[in-house]
Fold this protein.
Amino acid sequence: MMKNRRDRARFKTDISVRVNLLDEPAQACKGRLANLSAHGLSIILADELFPGSIVRVEWGNTDFVGEVIYCRMHGQEFLAGLKVEEPVYDAKSPQTGKRVI
């Protein structure tokens, strides 16, 4: 069994989000926030995002700007992983007890 090497807790979600490509402001799409950690988000989308793209993810009164690190097929959709600069939350990892911000 492979051990999870992340030192940040990751939380599964199923929240509808809006994703705006900052390089192309007219480009926006809907997606679902699959999970989040202190400095990352995973989003399920109908359209592919390219690594290196900068996007704004919005839901409710919350938004985060992040860089697309990967985007791969996920069934009939795409799963994109984003790295965000601003901490999504402030907590300790249950695995290591380290601060995650």
User: Anything to note?
Assistant: Confidence is low (pLDDT under 50) at residues 96-101. The chain has one domain: 11-84.
